[in-house]
Amino acid sequence: GNVDAFADESSDWQLRLIAGVDGPLIARARALGVDARLLPFPRSVARIGDASLGRLIGKKRRILSAAKWLPAACAALFYRGRLRKEIEAFRPDLIHTNGFKMHAFGIFARRGGCPPVIWHVRDYIGLRPIMARVLRLLAPRCAGAIANSESTARDLLENCGDGLRAEVIYHTVD
User: Fold this and answer.
1) d(C-alpha 140, C-alpha 115), whole Å
2) Phi and psi at residue 108, to the nearest 5°
3) φ and ψ at residue 55, rounded to 5 degrees
4) 32, 51 Cβ separation under 8 angstroms
5) Phi, psi of 51 (to 5 degrees)
6) pTM, two decimal places
7) Alpha carbons 93 and 91: distance in angstroms, whole number
8) How many whole angstroms separate alpha carbon 15 and alpha carbon 29?
9) Interatomic CA distance for residues 139 and 130, integer angstroms
10) pLDDT tens per residue, range 125-170
11) Distances in Å between the alpha carbon of 109 and those of 5, 52, 133, 153, 154?
């Protein structure tokens, strides 16, 4: 898998994984010697997103969206501060993010635009209108993106602009 490749080929690298949600990746990374930490998203942040709005349309969608996003915005500021402390304590040369929320937090948690952030994109951003707008605004601050397919890369560039550099790296199958 992807974690195995980093652990095997980069033994002189210091790797740290910070996950916003708990899952098997943390245990697997730790088993490979990666300093893996859970920094859970606040509940209101974990629950927001395009998918949580379902197929609601019009005024009802806007009202429910605001009702979910306003409390999440306050929690997101708190989370950004916690993530920033983790990043500053580790002092990485690069931040490699995975997942749309962490792509945004990876950009916002840095001070002065350093270190560079690379987004690892596995999903179609065009299917998520809210997150597509957020990432379009953040794309100029992103050093580049890794996409898992040509179509994912194309969708990313169509939604975030051609100024973002995206490279395709196909995933291996375990």
Assistant:
1) 14
2) -70, -25
3) -105, 20
4) no
5) -65, -35
6) 0.83
7) 7
8) 10
9) 14
10) 998 888 899 999 999 999 999 999 999 999 999 999 988 999 999 9
11) 27, 24, 19, 24, 27
